[in-house]
Amino acid sequence: MSRRNPGSGRWRYAGSAVLLALLAWLLLAGRRGGDTRPEPPLPPAARGRWAFQARYMASVLSMLFVPSMRRQAARQISGNSSAAARAVAEPAAYRQEARYSLPFRGEWYVYNGGPDEATSHSWDVVAQRYAYDFVMVDGSLRRWSRAGEHLEDYRCYGAPILAPADGLVVELRDGVRDAPGAGTGWVDLLTDDFRGNFVTIRHAEGEYGFLAHLIPGSVRVAVGERVKAGQEIGRCGNSGHSTEPHLHFHVQDRADFFQAAGLPVAFDGVSLDGEAPASRLYPRRGTRVRST
């Protein structure tokens, strides 16, 4: 029997702590200099922005003590490193193959994301460099009613999520619970998958749409199924690592979320901030978008 080195466990945990701290920084580093848009308001349930951010960071660092979370964080950081060589520097450097529509009906708001470093969802997280977080808002950019403590308080919760283009479903997850504590900043440490319930669709060679945080039990497609643009694939929820109901959407260069590089894609038939519909548009954080 080999004798266990008592120091190996300490080093393993120290390494995990470094990985998780790095991941937390990457996820919070989306807003860059040059983006002057005001931060959207937080619900009363947050009890203030500093309290919200403190809870979020405490949740992320607490993942150190959850083996499944440590493994997922390590996979994401390792994949981020390997995908860096394929990172797309700007939309002009990429020629997209498929034509994309917004993955929902009606008017939504771009809470996070854009085609450049200043508006990026998470510029240094290569898979999510060109990702978007979409929500529904009122005239004051409130995403909720009442105090925002319950999932049903959020305007986008339960809204149909649509395939953004024709394609083949290559991966999905269902059955992950909606995260508790909506609007407070707490992250669900007991979730099986920080992506929550998601669907990955192959739209073209090297173009895979990824739609996440769906309501458990709402996924309406199966792996191997061919879907058409505009077909309902699930309902907007709060599963996985989500601090409030929203749709996370991005296009990536391979099916594996953890090994992928994100791709900048323009949308067709989009009305931006009430203007006439246009095509080949890249939405930006802080704008209202409507699919026509």
TrEMBL record:
SUPFAM superfamilies cross-referenced by the UniProt entry: Duplicated hybrid motif
Superkingdom, taxonomy of origin: Bacteria
M23ase beta-sheet core domain span: 157-254
Cited InterPro entries: Cell_wall_metabolism_enzyme, Dup_hybrid_motif, M23ase_b-sheet_dom
Gene Ontology MF terms in the entry: metalloendopeptidase activity
| Name of the molecule in the record | Peptidoglycan DD-metalloendopeptidase family protein
